[in-house]
């Protein structure tokens, strides 16, 4: 596979560019994509355009790509360029003409596209607790809820299943205490309130069926773009981590073959107030996911937004301009400069502050996975349109086999339906009158009847479900 061109030599925006189109100075080797990458730079310096250029070139090589769009400025990937003066000015420097403009074939996921869903069971209590922003106590309680659901054979497929489970636990608190220890009503109340807040932020729509089948992302026929622009930040972070964990757990060993490149824009959101234990696990996933043929590219303003153990694993780097006015900024620039392999012809630290828009310091891995000396380059012009798609344009993308598969929501019988039906039945048996007392009585009977059901299934549900490595480490249970 031909290398991905990341730019031509640049002598700086003030000195003008070569009159003759120059040959590439920095290249990303497709074989090194699974060594991960980083695109950084202050706001407006060209990070998202660089991401775009990488995605376009990967797509041209039939490499499957999944991209998150946090600011809503990437849907234009599905349209041909020609809308930007700055891009047009750059074409001749690269020996390119207007025929460079090209639309990508795009699968649009998310709000205006194909729904991307997972189930609470797949996500597991730990990541869910992250999404909800639960404290340690509440997180412990959520784990307990999952255990109860597991043991009572309650399927958790969507948001209302989770709500039903928590409401059930609340009313049947006393009966459950025999088997599970005391359950704090106050903590349950706090969890419920967080549920409601997230529901208002639209997070409930991320849960349900049909859940995403990862194999649908592994085809090089089109770029997968997840519109996360309207998504709650915490939910975005959780979804991203879930995707990484899921890719790691579900994909077989790739034997060196590249299966998928994943781009996370605004990547600092992934790591905002991440508990240390979770960070350890994410670090492991990032380390190990390479064996599954997955390369991850983080795009963020400040490289120090990415925790050091993860940063250290990002082999391919594109650094756009950083400001270096305050002492803190100067320290960042110093640290970034040190992270590059030196180039004797370049004063890395001094250059970082002087880079123009769409200009960057680049160092990628060579064929032996050794970082190449840092180069100052002008990033190529993107082929796709910078302005986002209109609503009408988005609608035209929402068809085809993936839309057919995911657009109609499924609602299988799961915890919500099951609990409701059982409760109705028991209430009828304990009628007349549906007073609170009767309801509690019925919930007590419900616990018993569910227990019996679990036993009669040979404790089939009582067994802890199989866990992947993350589950074993406590991140999640499946
Ligand atoms: N390689 C490039 N070729 C031509 N123009 C570019 C290039 N890179 C950046 N630009 C110009 O700079 C603008 C800002 O770039 P971009 O949106 O990528 O910045 P950013 O670093 O992602 O900003 P933010 O932090 O706000 O997301 C683009 O809209 C485009 O006009
Ligand atoms: Mg951007």
Automatic annotation (TrEMBL):
Domain annotation Helicase HerA-like C-terminal: ranges: 26-431
SUPFAM superfamilies: P-loop containing nucleoside triphosphate hydrolases
Taxonomic superkingdom: Bacteria
Ranges in a coiled coil: none
Region (Disordered): 1-23
InterPro entries: HerA_C, P-loop_NTPase, T4SS_component
UniProt name for this protein: DUF853 family protein
Annotated source species: Biformimicrobium ophioploci
């Amino acid at each position: 596979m031909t290398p991905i061109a990341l730019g031509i030599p640049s002598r700086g925006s003030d000195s003008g560019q070569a009159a003759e189109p120059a040959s590439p100075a920095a290249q990303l080797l497709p074989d090194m994509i699974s060594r991960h990458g980083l695109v950084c730079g202050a706001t407006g310096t060209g990070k998202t355009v660089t991401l775009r250029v990488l995605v376009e070139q990967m797509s041209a090589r039939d490499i499957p790509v999944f991209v998150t769009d946090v600011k809503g400025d990437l849907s234009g990937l599905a349209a041909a360029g020609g809308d930007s003066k700055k891009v047009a000015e750059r074409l001749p420097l690269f020996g390119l003409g207007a025929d460079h403009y090209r639309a990508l074939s795009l699968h649009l996921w998310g709000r205006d596209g194909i729904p991307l869903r997972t189930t609470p069971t797949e996500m597991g209590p730990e990541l869910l607790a992250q999404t909800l922003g639960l404290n340690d106590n509440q997180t412990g309680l959520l784990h307990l809820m999952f255990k109860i659901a597991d043991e009572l054979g309650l399927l958790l497929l969507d948001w209302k299943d989770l709500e039903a489970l928590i409401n059930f636990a609340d009313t049947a608190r006393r009966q459950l205490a025999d088997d599970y220890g005391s359950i704090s009503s106050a903590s349950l109340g706090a969890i419920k309130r967080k549920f409601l807040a997230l529901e208002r932020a639209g997070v409930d729509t991320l849960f349900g069926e049909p859940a995403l089948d990862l194999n649908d992302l592994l085809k090089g026929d089109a770029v997968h773009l997840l519109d996360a622009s309207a998504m709650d930040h915490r939910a975005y972070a959780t979804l991203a981590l879930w995707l990484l964990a899921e890719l790691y757990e579900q994909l077989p060993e790739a034997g060196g073959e590249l299966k998928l490149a994943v781009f996370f824009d605004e990547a600092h959101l992934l790591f905002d107030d991440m508990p240390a234990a979770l960070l350890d696990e994410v670090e492991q996933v990032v380390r190990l996911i390479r064996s599954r043929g997955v390369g991850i590219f983080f795009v963020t303003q400040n490289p120090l937004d990415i925790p050091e153990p993860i940063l250290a694993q990002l082999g391919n780097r594109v650094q756009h301009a950083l400001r270096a006015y305050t002492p803190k900024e100067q320290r960042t620039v110093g640290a970034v400069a040190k992270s590059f392999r030196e180039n004797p012809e370049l004063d890395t630290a001094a250059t970082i502050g002087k880079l123009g828009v769409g200009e960057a310091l680049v160092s990628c891995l060579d064929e032996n996975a050794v970082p190449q000396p840092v180069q100052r380059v002008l990033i190529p012009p993107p082929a796709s349109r910078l302005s986002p798609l209109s609503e009408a344009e988005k609608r035209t993308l929402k068809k085809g086999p993936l839309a057919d598969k995911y657009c109609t929501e499924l609602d299988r019988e799961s915890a919500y339906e099951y609990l409701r039906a059982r409760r109705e039945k028991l209430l009828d048996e304990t009628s007349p009158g549906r007073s609170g007392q009767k309801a509690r009585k019925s919930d007590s009977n419900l616990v018993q009847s569910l227990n019996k059901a679990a036993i009669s299934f040979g404790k089939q549900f009582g067994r802890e479900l199989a866990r992947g490595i993350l589950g074993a480490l406590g991140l999640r249970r499946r």
